[in-house]
Amino acid sequence: MNFFERMQSLDRRWIYIVVALAIIIPLMIPYNSDNVTSPSTENLYQMIDSFAGREDRAILLSFMHDASTMPELYPMEIAIIRHCFERNIKVFALTFLTSGAPIIDYAFNSVKEEYPDIKSGVDYCNFGYKPQAMAVVLGMGDNIANTINTDAEGRKLESLPIMKGITNYNEMNLVVEFSGSTPGTYWIFYARPKFGVNVALGVTAVMAADQYPYLQSGQLIGMLTGLKGAAEYEKLVDVFAAYRDPAIDYSVKTDAEGNKILPGRPFGKEVLNDESTKKLINITTQTKAEFTPAEYTAFVAKYPKQKAIFEQLKEAQNGTIIIDVTKITPELRNQMGETAYREINRLTYNINYKFKVARIGMNAQSVAHIMIIVFILLGNIGYFIQKAKSVEK
Amino acid sequence: MKKTIPLIIVIVGGIIFVLYALSPHKLLQDDFYNKFYIPWAYASAPWAALLGVISLCMMHSSKIKRRAPKWQYSYFFFAGFIITSLAGFIGGTQKGSMLMWIFENMQMPMSSTMFSLLAFYMASAAYKAFRARSTEATVLLVAAIVVMLAQVPLGVKIYKNLPLISQWILDVPNLASKRGIAIGVGLGGVATSLKILLGIERSYLGGTD
Predict the structure, then answer these.
(1) Does B128 touch chain A (CB under 8 A)?
(2) Which of A9, A95, B76, B175 has most Cβ atoms within 10 angstroms of its Cβ?
(3) pLDDT digits over A174-189, tens only?
(4) What mean pLDDT is reported for chain A?
(5) Is residue A45 situated within a structural domain?
(6) pLDDT in tens, A129-172
(7) Are residues B179 and A213, on separate chains, in Cβ contact within 8 Å?
(8) How far apart are CA A373 and CA B142, in angstroms?
(9) Across residues A314-339, what is the average pLDDT?
């Protein structure tokens, strides 16, 4: 038995071991890789971002999946909720599956940990599990508060501050459905033609091909495809949160009524390809905050009492000043105070694990895809060699 | 009577919904849908769920009584059902509750593990069965390799235009076949709906005719 014949009859358990290693190693040792964003993800990002700070605009997230498809769909949900919290966008969520209800709670609670100012009923609202999908989808086109009545916590919807300015799909103008089976059916077939609501999907990779007709016809304004779509969205949120155009004033202002006015964020390929921004969205652990001398002076001026500590920690490297947060001992952290510590930590641009999980997963998927391609090629080479030999005989 | 009354309910209900979809009249949009249908739909949902629970319990208890194959697993159903229900009813569904603990530490990892097994089967099937035996199979194989490579960051490093080629495959040949299937399914759906509305198609009532 030659090598190729042996390879043809390879025990499948060896294949399983190789697959396991190909997935586990990149997950344990993350590296920086660049996920090229697709138009369907960019369109969805731009639409959601256009709602920033608006009282008369909101998005609805429909969680139509159970825990089994969470590895692919959950990172998308987290990325979109994070985008909404960061940009002050009203976000609602519901599910027509009983098994989807805990996923909504889990997702909101997980993102909320990083945004302590965000409040349920004010910035977001969980409608929870709702039976009779078609009745709800069509009823919300007329009046959301009358159809849903109470949120998952049993509060009357009419009395919640988040409902100010939100009546029906005219305001809650975008629905994003995350699904592991038949995505967007009610929204595409009923809500969009009848009420003109914009629909987008987040689907598992194997289902994406089925949705392309709706995407091309414009019935879907965007689609996140599997872990890749989630990684792309994570990247967009990080890039545009980090990028600063010198010509734009990014400070948050308030109007006469005390409402926040958020600055717009320019969207374009030049921003996505900007090298200085790429450095700020690394998925490997970042521990060093880097300043120009002018930036360092401005930073220290904000914390005059902690100046001595920063002077002790700073290191000069190639004309820049660097502070390594791993050198901050618990005693120094106490002396520094939590506000200054959080600020210096933020300036390292270290991304929280839960907000880069899809990109780390994409590293594993890269290796897994390459490995499957190698398997296909090896299998075919062996097959043709064996075939040629049998013809010779 | 056993078949005539359900048939009338289906035909009348179907026609009302066709009219609701086509007519903006207040009688249909507000009086029928908002005031009559939505409250009744909500009221019927818990009963449907109860019916499901009773049916599931009957099925598993009968399996245990009959000592049917793998009857022991039915005890796991009852254990899971009772513990999860009690956790939800007693502790609520908020963060830190027993139900959320079960969800985070049991349901989530177990379900995800089942789904992730797909990767192992796919790799094994790719190696053992994905062969370029014919022209069609070769085209499929090449398309699959291009799309798979373009999906991942490493593919773009190999050839920067790979995403464009992959997008073309998805937008043109894939879309053409998907549209064909969708049109076929749509026409079939319309035909079947019409047959049900007109009382020609009755197989959903059960029986042989």
Answers:
(1) yes
(2) A95
(3) 999 999 888 888 999 9
(4) 89
(5) yes
(6) 998 898 899 889 989 998 898 999 899 999 999 999 999 999 99
(7) yes
(8) 10
(9) 89
Structure tokens at B89: 């009813």
Q: Are residues A100 and A115 in the same domain?
A: yes
CB < 8 Å from A in window 20-39 of B: 21, 29, 33-34, 37-38
Last residue of a domain, one of A241, A265, A296: A241
Smallest CA–CA distance, residue B209 to chain A, in Å, is 31
pLDDT, tens digit, for every residue of A288-297?
A: 998 888 889 8
pLDDT digits (tens, 9 = 90+) for B7-39: 999 999 999 988 988 888 999 888 888 888 888
Task: Tell me whether residue A263 is in a domain.
Answer: no
Same structural domain, A215 and A294: no
Judge if A76 and A164 occupy the same domain.
yes
Give the residue from A133, A379, A217, A280 showing the smallest Cα distance to B133. Answer: A379
**pLDDT single digits (tens) B164-207:** 899 899 889 989 999 999 899 999 999 999 999 998 888 888 76
Residues A13 and A121 in one domain: no
> For residue B21, which residues of chain A lie inside 8 Å, CB to CB?
194
Read off the tokens for A354: 């839960």
Show the domain range for A51: 39-241
Cα(A148)–Cα(A126) distance, rounded to whole angstroms? 11
A114 or A81, greater pLDDT: A81
Share of chain B above pLDDT 90, in %: 46
Q: What SS3 class is residue B99?
A: helix
Residue A183 vs residues A65, A180, A199, A295: alpha-carbon distances, Å: 9, 7, 11, 48
The closest alpha carbon to A94, from A60, A70, A71, A49, belongs to A60
Question: Cβ neighbours of residue A371 under 8 Å, at least 6 residues apart?
Answer: A18, A19, A22, B123
Do A50 and A149 fall into the same domain? Answer: yes
Domain identity same for A68 and A186: yes
* First CA to last CA distance, chain A: 15
Report the number of distinct structural domains present in chain A: 3
